[in-house]
Amino acid sequence: MDDTALWIVSLLASTVRLATPLVLASLAGFYSERAGVVDIGLEGKMLTGAFAAAATAAVTGSPWAGLAAAIAASLVLALVHGFACITHRGDQVVAGVAINTIAAGLTAVLANAWFDLGGRTPSLDSGQRFLGLHFPLAEAVRGVPLLGRFYGEVIGGQNLLVYLAVLAVPATSWVAYRTRFGLRLRAVGENPAAVDTAGISVPWLRYRAVLITGLLCGVAGAYLSIAQGAGFQENMTAGKGYLALAALILGKWRPYPTLAGCLLFAATDALQARLQGVALPVVGAVPVQIIEVLPYILTVLLLAGFVGKSIPPKAAGQAYVKDR
Amino acid sequence: MSASTNTDGLPRWATLALLPAINLFAALVVSSLVILAIGQDPVSALAFMVKGAVGSGTGLSYTLYYATSLIFTGLAVAIANHAGLFNIGGEGQAYVGGLGTGLVCLALSGWPWYAVLPVAVLAGALFGAVWGLIPGYLQAYRGSHIVITTIMFNFLASALMVYLLGGPLIEHGQMAPESREFAESTFLPAVKEIAAALGYRTPTLPLNLSLLLALLCAAGVWFLIWHTRWGFQMRTVGANEAAARYAGISARTTIVIAMAISGALAGLVGINELQGVQHRITLNFQAGMGFTGIAVALMGRGHPVGIVLSSLLFGALYQGGAELSFEYNEISPRLVVVIQGVVILFSGALEHMFRPALARLLKPKAPATAGQRA
Predict the structure, then answer these.
(1) Residue-by-residue DSSP string for A105-158
(2) Which residues on neighbouring strands pair with residue A280, listed in sequence order?
(3) Is the CB of residue A104 less than 8 Å away from at least one CB of chain B?
């Protein structure tokens, strides 16, 4: 029984750790897409953030400097995205693909040239990373069955950026549904002409949305390389940006359901690692790939309307042309 | 992704030649800045790349070998684009298509290559087509966004191949996730064999007969797009879906067909990589060729001639980049990926940046004020 409890606690703790970058990135996508700018480029911005964070933390020794660098680098790419899609009304998907491609190449080239470790950055020691925070009384209640460990290892013991991600969900919900900026943000994603008629600048609104996206992607990237991990590796995002986008679709472009989507994807990921070669009751040993692809299959089914229906913001993907 | 619209009065030669040249130049400037940033001399690095790519017979043959795969994936992206679809799934379609080709080569062990080839081409095209057709169907009949679905299908393809090569297809008693080697009789003739037949001696090089198949496909795509009813329907749906429906064209069927053909073309990468070079099904043999096809198609402006030329360019970049990283340890071969990204940015997402300026520059002098406001 105690083994099962331990197993559950470690699964949950691992789910939280794996969900964090997805939550940050999918909320990032939330701002951009609700403002009508489709963002395939979450992946690239995260990757760039991860590299900037690890490189800066390795050189300066400060995780805070790393976090700042991650945000700055991701913001630059967000501006490129905005410049192409908002200012020049370029194709948003193509711009996203360009950003992902540039990020994949540039991080590898710079990491290789600056650190000469074959595309990695040096391993960071504990002072250069965001480490797990120790919650008060965690040791004292450890003995309490299940709940003690749950408090110490799932609720507590996570690093700062995890809590930031947890806070970002209600914050996003509040911004989007309780503030003037949020109302305008959602309006510009549904009907930019109406926003324009009200005398509000569509480009400026969309630029702000895209910059928030950049900020959150930067944090997500920093989490991967200087909180969860201890350094940058080539292509270390490995599709997490796309998965975050899928979670956003699964959550029908709303913050709390998106959080649920991220937790679901993270849980399948955590489960997948633990079920490798384990024989399950009834079905026997399942190839891990089947569990691994569940998020992708779910997204496909959902988008196709076989499991509920997910409808994107109406103006998403379209550049706004003022004089028409 | 907008097909080249000709509303701003830009001459055809400028659209087809000058714009890509400007885009390439911009990409070269950005990559020079990157090379500068890592403390190297961009001029000598770029010169070294050119020499590595086309300066020797070996270099040139590698360039052509890379170009072969890129022609397939570039055509795949372009044909979907003509129907108004952005197919990001070339990578997965190439991967699954290669599975079809590989299975045929494994099954038809004793057959000579010229008998295997048509079956392998059919199987590769069929497998790739299925992997493109499903997202196409879901877009046409269920309204799912093709971009997201094709991305998901890339992940599905990757998981499928990892599973198959790690278990059912793995070579008996081996640890590496690859199939057993094909029978030697099924290997596509490469440069060495062809040269030997003509009485020349060359080293073993990857360039093989599938280059001809790629060129045939390019010609076929040209014919299909501009000289058949299907092609006309695709271009009409791509230009204006509502108008196409009003004209009695079934947009749904057209979208499914376009994605099937697109997937089939991408699926032929395996002919070059597996039947031509690796001679077994390997993990990730398509190695980014599907994604590079996006840059190739954009730079080639969706026209088969442009795609062949930009495939040569990107093939040269791959080969030159590989040579460069042998010579300069500091420069990673991934520099090519940066250049590819910048090309996508400039010729795809920022195509509206250069166009108006260029149109203004090239405008005939006479009525400078009239007709300015369209």
Answers:
(1) HHHHHHHHHHH-SSS--PPP-GGGS-PBPPPTTTTGGGGSTTHHHIIIIIISS-
(2) A284
(3) yes
d(CA A130, CA B289): 37
Alpha carbons B173 and B162: distance in angstroms, whole number: 17
Cβ A221 vs Cβ A49: under 8 Å: yes
Taking the CA of residue A304 and the nearest CA in chain B, the distance in Å comes to 5
* CA separation for the pair A164, A159 (Å, rounded): 9
Asked if B170 and B92 count as a contact pair (C-beta separation under 8 A), the reply is no
Architecture label for domain B12-31+48-360: Orthogonal Bundle (1.10)
Residue A100 touches chain B, beta carbons under 8 Å: yes
Q: Do B152 and A300 touch (CB under 8 A)?
A: yes
State the Cα–Cα distance between residues B105 and B92, nearest whole angstrom: 20
Tell me, yes or no, if A109 comes closer than 8 A to chain B by beta carbon: yes
pLDDT class of B3 with cuts at 50, 70, 90: very low
* Ramachandran angles phi, psi of B45, nearest 5°: -65, -45
| Paired tokens of A144 | 């309490």
How far does A125 lie from chain B, in Å, by closest CA?
A: 25
pLDDT in tens, B88-122: 999 999 999 999 999 999 999 889 999 999 999 99
